[in-house]
From TrEMBL:
Protein keywords: Methyltransferase, rRNA processing, S-adenosyl-L-methionine, Transferase
Function comment: Specifically methylates the guanine in position 966 of 16S rRNA in the assembled 30S particle.
Class of enzymatic activity (EC top level): transferase
Family: Belongs to the methyltransferase superfamily. RsmD family.
UniProt-recorded name of the protein: Ribosomal RNA small subunit methyltransferase D
Organism: Dyella ginsengisoli
Pfam families: Cons_hypoth95
A GO term for molecular function: 16S rRNA (guanine(966)-N(2))-methyltransferase activity
InterPro entries for this protein: DNA_methylase_N6_adenine_CS, RNA_MeTrfase_RsmD, SAM-dependent_MTases_sf
Keyword Ubl conjugation: no
Recorded catalytic activity of this chain's protein: guanosine(966) in 16S rRNA + S-adenosyl-L-methionine = N(2)-methylguanosine(966) in 16S rRNA + S-adenosyl-L-homocysteine + H(+)
EC numbers for this chain: 2.1.1.171
The UniProt record lists the keyword S-adenosyl-L-methionine: yes
């Protein structure tokens, strides 16, 4: 049985209460409002003027929330064509500046020429188990020296992340663990 596509809303900032269309796609789980509110309270001191990367963007709710709260730019990466198209349509309808969408998988995007981001949202489909792989690729020039990285994963499965990602805050909501890390310089030499 196919569900009806849904809607979620931006919770704060210049786009507050704007609704986002959510396509009905397998594995697409928009980050709940309560979790987004907690995350952006944590990020409040650094989000204004930040350059963000919404990797495995899905609905784009995290990146759009950042833009609504003053981020300078957000690069969205979403491989599912219908999700990428819905994201582009939401960006156009809301007249959002500073955003671009790449309809490619996260690993392929990270195989391209790197450019550093200040904030990265790492929320891959849970079934794909991509946290560690994508985290290691992010360390290859995609993170500013003191970047913030948000990681959403199953409650019972903490991913293996680079040693220089220091846990700043974490919480749980239902079966989901959400955590914010701060990048501390470079990886130690092996």
């Amino acid at each position: 049985m196919r569900r009806t596509p849904g809607r979620i809303r931006i919770i704060s900032g210049s786009l507050r209460n704007s609704r986002l269309d959510v396509p009905d796609l397998p594995g697409l789980r928009p980050t709940p409002e309560r979790v987004r509110e907690t995350l952006f309270n944590w990020l409040a001191p650094v989000i204004v003027g930040a350059h963000g990367l919404d990797l495995c963007a899905g609905t784009g709710a995290l990146g759009l929330e950042a833009l609504s709260r003053g981020a300078a730019s957000v690069q969205f990466v979403e491989p599912q064509a219908s999700a990428a198209q819905a994201l582009r349509a939401n960006l156009a309808r809301l007249k959002v500046d500073g955003a671009s969408v790449d309809a490619v998988d996260a690993a392929s995007f990270l195989a391209g020429p790197p450019r550093p981001f200040d904030v990265v949202w790492l929320d891959p489909p849970f079934a794909a188990n991509l946290w560690s792989t994508l985290a290691q690729r992010l360390e290859q020039g995609w993170l500013s020296a003191s970047a913030w990285i948000y990681v959403e994963s199953p409650r019972d499965k903490a991913p293996v992340l680079p040693a220089n990602w220091m846990l700043h805050r974490e919480a749980q909501a239902g079966e989901v663990r959400h955590a914010l890390y701060r990048r501390a310089g470079t990886l130690p030499l092996s």
